[in-house]
Specification:
Elements lengths: L14 E6 L7 H5 L3 E6 L1 H4 L3 H11 L9 E5 L5 H20 L12 H25 L2
Antiparallel strand pairs: 1-2, 2-3
Helix pairs in contact: 3-4
Length: 138
């Protein structure tokens, strides 16, 4: 199954949504309605494999809280439902990336041309420095 198209089953206790008032422009709507959604996902309660959990923590970056939860804040839309969908979509994308294992790196050797170019540039740099040394001794 393709990890990009995979549907994740998240246990009921692993997600928590909280609605708060948005900041910034918007006039009365911003001051009255709590449209910003704070989606808190607890990976420890989700029962994810260790490798996925470790990649998820790395990918989460600043969204990872001290308690180990992932906090996603969505406030780009004017309605709760649109912000809820945006936050869930971001979480889904983050999980899809965490489920995708990294491509293995295959060691390669430098080509003969790249070795020659490297040595030539080192030689040129050496000559420049050598010329400077001779100019300073009067």
């Amino acid at each position: 199954m393709d990890p990009e198209k995979r549907d994740f089953y998240l246990p009921p206790g692993s997600l928590e949504e909280k609605f708060v008032r948005s900041g910034g422009h918007g006039g009365q709507n911003v001051n009255k309605v709590a449209t910003t959604v704070q989606l808190r996902f607890s990976p420890a309660l989700a029962g994810l494999p260790y490798a996925v959990l470790s990649r998820l923590r790395t990918l989460a970056g600043s969204k990872l809280t001290d308690e180990g939860d992932i906090l996603i804040v969505a406030s780009e839309y004017r309605t709760q439902e649109q912000n809820r969908q945006a936050a869930r979509a971001r979480l889904q994308e983050l999980l899809a990336r965490a489920f995708r294992p990294p491509r293995p790196r295959h060691a390669t050797r430098p080509t003969r041309g790249s070795k020659q170019r490297r040595l030539e540039s080192k030689k040129r740099r050496s000559d420049v420095k050598k010329d400077r040394r001779g100019a300073g001794d009067f």
